[in-house]
Every structure is written in structure tokens, then in C-alpha cells.
Write a structure and sequence with these properties.
This protein has helices at residues 2-16, 23-47, 49-55, 62-74, 77-86, 90-115, 119-144, 162-189, 193-223, 232-258, 261-268, 275-303, 310-326, 331-348. It is an all-alpha fold. It is globular and about 60 Å long.
Length: 349
Amino acid sequence: TAISNTLMHYTANLLQEGKTGSIRFLVRLWLNRILLISLPLLFLAIIFRNPLASFFHLSGPWPVILIGIAFFASAFSPVFAGVLQGMQKFTLVGLPSLATGLVRLLIGGVLVLCVAPLAASGLAAHALAALAGTALFFYFYRTQTPSPPPENERPLSAEYSDSYFWATLAALLCYSILMNMDVVLVKHYFSNQDTAGGYARASMIGKTLIFLVQPIAGAMFPKVVSRGHMAGEHAFTFLKAVMLSALIIAGGALFCTLFPQVPILILFRDNAPTPEMIALVRFICWAMAPLGLVFILMNFELAQHRMACVVPLAICAAGFIGGVVLFHGSLWQVASVLLAASMVSLAAL
């Protein structure tokens, strides 16, 4: 996402400045960098597959290997997606994502039903879907971007966009900790598979609230790109994004509070959830809800080239990890720390 935001930000700026020919130079620069990082990471995942599997109490190393392959296959798509989004080609950004989901679902269904009902089957489908999505992103990028620049247009320097990328990476890393690290820490502190699995289910339902507003942030971002100043139309677009996101999040959280059995049944085929599971879903949905608005606020700040949002996000992420390390006697303690961290991060931004 940090790569995608960086390409989106600078593609929109280059279009505003009439330097459309430099877009492909920017893409080539980032593809080379990603390859230099992603290939060694894939080898490390394969080499350390057994220690990683042991850390997460997995029965074998194949899930680690398949996730490594999936990450490598999908590592390049953010470059192409960022360019298309910066050009406001929202339909072409959505189609590869939709295709990725369909391929994952269809191949995953075949592998799980016909080969083996194991996590490795689903992860193999995920890797194949990532490859298909990246290929489609590349095709759309090649058909939409201008031809290489004329000889009088100088290529971009290697330092171009670097500081913005690192600041964006820091912000998104901290946000990812707030959004995802609860499941990782629960998996580590609670070795019982049913306990960790129940929390992971509730957390997945809560994250749905955030996923629902992510397209709003993606559509808002290229429309409010600037070099640090906010115009009147930027403020209006931002206000619309916040109001629509708040409405969707509140509606989703209210639905999960009144009818928690419905998402549990749809996602996990559990038609008789325990009272504790129902209560946990309700609590985590409201604990996750502020993070949806945090995502909108963070993306607006990044689009406006204002990086001060990194500081409160870093403090909240560190506070969340420290809070769980100190208070993990029960799932409710972890969820309470998550609620506190999400509320503080929203207030800070």
C-alpha cells in the first residue's frame, strides 16, 4: 500500500505538471527496487520456514512457503495499481482486484473440495490468484500509460519519491499494527487453537467494516493530491469521504451488534455460536470501527503531503503492542487494549 500510494501521489502530480512521459521511468525505478527486496525475502521465507511454522504453532512449513510465494507474486501489482489510480482509472483498478478474488474463490474451492480440505489448499489458490491479478494490472498499465518520453525529457532521479515513500511506509506500518497485530499476538499468547481461532473469526468480521471504506479512501486520494496546501475542493471531497465512511461504518457496526449471528453464519457456517462468541464479535466490531475513520484521515494527510500523522500512529501502535504484552490474560483484555488504541488514534488524527 505504501508503494501504491507513492505511485498514486506522484502520478497525479506528474499529470498535473504535464510530465506524463516520466511515469514509466518512475514505474521502472520501483519495479527494480521491489525485485531486489522481494526475491531475497522469498528465499528467507523458504530457508526459515520451520522456525516460522513453530512460532505460530503450525503443523508444517507449507503455509509459510505458500504465503511467501503469494507475497512475491503480488509484490509488483501495487506499482501498476498506483499509476492507474493516480490517473483516476478506478474501473481498471477494480477489475484486477475482482478477478483476483474470483480466481482465489474458484481455485480455492476446487482444491479444498477435490484435493484436500487444508489451509495449504486455500493458500495455493491465493498464490495463483495473486499472480493472475498482477498480470492483469500490468496489461491495463501498458495500455493506459503514455509512450516513453521524448529525448528532451529527462528521466527521474533515483531519489525521486524516496522520502515520501518512507514516511508513507511508516504510517501504514503503524496502521497495519493497529489493524492486524491483534490476531498475531493472540495466536502467540493463546496456544489453544479454538481460543485463537475464535478471536480470529471475530477480528475478521470487525475488519470488514474497514474494508468497506477502503474504496472511498482510494477514490479520494488522487482527487486531493497536493504539495502541502489544501484547496476548497479538497476540503469538500474530504468532508464527503468522512461523512460517507462514518455512515457505512456505523451501519455495519450496528448490524453486527443487532444480528451478529448473520456474519458468523455466512463466513463460518456456524449456526449455533456460543454466547461468548457473539459478545466477542459485538465488542471487536466497535473496537475496530474507529480504525475505519483513521484510515480515511491518514490517507487524506498523505495525499496532502503532510507527514505529521506518522507520529500519533507510531505512538498508538507501540502502545497497543505494549498493552497486549502487559494485559493478555484473556481475549477480552486484548480486545479492550485494541479499543483503547483505536479510539486514541482517531482522536489524535
